[in-house]
Amino acid sequence: RRLFTGDASKPPPDDATLVALAPTVVSAAARGATDAAEKVRESCFALVAQYVARCAGSLEPILKTLVPALTRAMGAGSEEEPSEEIRLARATLVGEICARSKDADVLASFADEMADVIASATRDAFHDVKKATHRAVEAFVEGLTERNDESGEGNVNVNAANALKKHARALCAAVLPDARHRHSQTRLSCLRAVSSLVPFLSVADMEELVAPGLQPMCADRTPGVRLALHEALARWMVADRTSDVDDASSARRDSRDGLDV
Predict the structure, then answer these.
(1) What average pLDDT does the structure give for the chain?
(2) pLDDT by residue (tens digit) across 19-62?
(3) SS3 of the chain: helix, strand, coil, percent, to 5
(4) How far apart are CA 160 and CA 14, in angstroms?
(5) Sequence-ordered list of residues with C-beta below 8 angstroms from that of 184, at least 6 positions apart, any chain
(6) Residue whose C-alpha is closest to residue 29's, from 77, 104, 89
(7) Cα-based angle 83, 136, 14 (whole degrees, multiple of 5)
(8) What stretch of H or E contains 19?
(9) SS (H, E, C) 130-175
(10) Measured at the alpha carbon of residue 118, what is the angle toward residues 141 and 176, in degrees to the nearest 5?
(11) DSSP secondary structure letter of residue 148
(12) How far apart are CA 153 and CA 37, in angstroms?
């Protein structure tokens, strides 16, 4: 705690100092992520979460140590964490990493590991962990989509686009079973996660995966879930039509310019 708040004899370090200390501090905390003692694991994730919050603008030195540790603790083939609170803290941390990443290229360089961790977390039975994982999916997409401050529109660079296209189907397949979850809020958060991935899915993905996966929501017992589904469908169809119009306009321009289309 004194690392972030200081004490009577020393003021708290600035962000630059924390970033410089990251390889040592985060490495030590990461080793505790799989410790046998629950309190140690809990404290380690709490420390790392504080680090991510304080150093959001310079995450790369932290992620180089932290992401491999998260993969060992949470990825495919990892041992099951018995504590629901720690599983929730871990899923929340993954979402925070993605949400606070200021550089899409940095996040893209760890996309394989982050996608593995997120997909593994979707299998958790605890509904709060599921919702945190759905938020992590949204944050993952958002973190790889650079926002234009003036227009608010999303721009995806080459590395980020490749990462999104590579992992969108697998992440969508991982969260879609939650469309049948008994809690309506979990079903809604599942829908939001799927919706964030839709722009990076192919037509085949939509037909073979999304349509059958969300079909139960058409007759969902909660009116708010049915409404959210139909609003999402409307957005997707409008976006698809807009894309078709843009493609047609581009084709007409190219044709006028004498280009083969």
Answers:
(1) 84
(2) 888 888 888 888 888 889 999 999 989 888 888 888 777 788 88
(3) 75, 0, 20
(4) 30
(5) 220, 222, 224, 225
(6) 89
(7) 85
(8) helix 15-31
(9) HHHHHHHHHHHHHHCCEECCCCCCEECCHHHHHHHHHHHHHHHHHH
(10) 80
(11) P
(12) 46
**Phi, psi for 146 (deg, rounded to 5):** -75, 130
Residue 184: both structure tokens together: 């309506």
d(CA 90, CA 43): 12
This prediction has a pTM of 0.84
Question: Which residue is associated with the tokens 């119009």?
Answer: 245
Decide: 174 and 117 in contact? Cβ < 8 Å: no
* CA pair distance 168, 223, nearest whole angstrom: 28
Q: What is the DSSP letter of 32?
A: G
Q: Which two tokens stand for residue 231?
A: 């609003």
Q: What is the dihedral of CA 113, 118, 124, 128, to 10 degrees?
A: 140
Contact assessment for residue 18 and residue 57, using Cβ atoms and an 8 Å cutoff: no
Structure tokens at 57: 């603008």
Per-residue DSSP letters for 66-87? HHHHHHHHHSTTPPPP--HHHH
Name the 3-class secondary structure at 185: helix
- In the block, tokens 């501090």 appear at 25
